[in-house]
Amino acid sequence: MLRQxxxxxxxxxxxxxxxxxxxxxxxxxxxxxxxxxxxxxxxxPGARYVGYTDFDLSDLKDVPPNTPLVxxxxxxxxxxxxxxxxxxxxxxxxxxxxxxxxxxINQGLPVHDAQGQTTKVHAYTRVWGIWLRKGEKxxx
Length: 140
Hints:
alpha/beta, 5-stranded parallel beta sheet, 9 strands, Oxidized Rhodanese, domain 1, globular
């Protein structure tokens, strides 16, 4: 499914690679490109909300262009589009999380909400939610 969904315009990074780099103390800036409602349900630990339909480059004016960025959404389509915009704006180290938040959850990795770690994850829609094998699915 992902091969057909991605245009491969932004390099991808696996959940294992992100975990490894974070465990090694490599400073990755995780950017959540989903809706604010999805982000509020849960997100990667330490992730910064940037949105998709309301994405604004000026929200990243404090981020140097050589900062290692990992963009993600539910499965990686929306984040790839935001990654393209970041690259066009001069960001040189942009990677798209392969499989997105769903793959992160399916690998048993933690997500957080405003109170801390949670098992809830916004499954986007019931059609897309079939790809989420772990976690407590939440729909609007």
